[in-house]
Amino acid sequence: MPIPERNNEGFLEDAWQWNEAIASKIASESNIDLDEKHWEIIWLLRDFYKEHEISPPSNRLFVKAVREILGEEKGNSIYLMQLFPGTPAKTACRIAGLPRPTNCL
């Protein structure tokens, strides 16, 4: 299955064309092998997007959203950086098929 059209940073042009197979392909481009911990965050992001029609706009707000839903253990920068290296919000949103967070470099 080919990956739908993406922008120059690898984000899907249409978040609704996303599925789990596409997420796995995008994750593999960043050498990330998705497991249940990743999927928990990915589904949280997809739900956030459905509710607010935006991606969490920054790493700080991404961490806060995870903390509010999943608790302190998972809602912290270290945990999220281990799952999604680099800029966690940006990496996780790309894998989740969502638009680029607005305040992420």
TrEMBL record:
Belongs to the dsrC/tusE family. It is found in: Cytoplasm. SUPFAM superfamilies: DsrC, the gamma subunit of dissimilatory sulfite reductase. GO terms for biological process: tRNA wobble position uridine thiolation. NCBIfam families: dsrC_tusE_dsvC. Pfam families: DsrC (PF04358). Part of a sulfur-relay system. It comes from Marinobacter segnicrescens. This is Sulfurtransferase.
